[in-house]
Amino acid sequence: MLRRAYEGNRAPLVIANHLNTWNGNAFNPATAAFMKRACTKPDVICATHQDVIAWMELQDPAVLKKWRSMAPVAVDAHR
Fold first, then answer.
1. Residue 30 maps to a domain
2. What is the distance between the alpha carbons of residues 72 and 8, in angstroms, rounded to a whole number?
3. How far apart are CA 34 and CA 37, in angstroms?
4. Is residue 20 helix, strand or coil?
5. Total structural domains within the chain
6. Is the whole model's pTM more than 0.85, yes or no?
């Protein structure tokens, strides 16, 4: 998904970490490793969800409308 967003429409990518230790704590180290790679890419900004919302609230409503009309980077296959 990161590659598709990075090379595509640059839509925000949400990474959720629930800080659980399921499956021998496999998720937390994998998430940390991904973030280390992703957050150091040129023109990538890693921010909290709250920071992204605050930034979006400062944008021109016409720009937000255009962004909302863009096709998603990925679609949930389970829907």
1. yes
2. 10
3. 5
4. coil
5. 1
6. no
pLDDT in tens, 19-70: 677 778 888 888 889 999 999 999 899 998 899 899 889 999 999 898 888 8
Residue 18 phi, psi (nearest 5): -90, 5
User: Per the structure block, which two tokens stand in for 66?
Assistant: 């255009």
Q: What is the pLDDT of residues 1-31, one digit of tens each?
A: 888 888 887 877 888 766 677 778 888 888 8
Q: Is residue 42 part of a domain?
A: yes
Residue type, 54: A
Flag whether 74 is in a domain.
no
Residue 65 Cα to chain centre, angstroms: 19
Does some domain include residue 58? Answer: yes
* Segments forming the whole domain that contains residue 51: 2-69
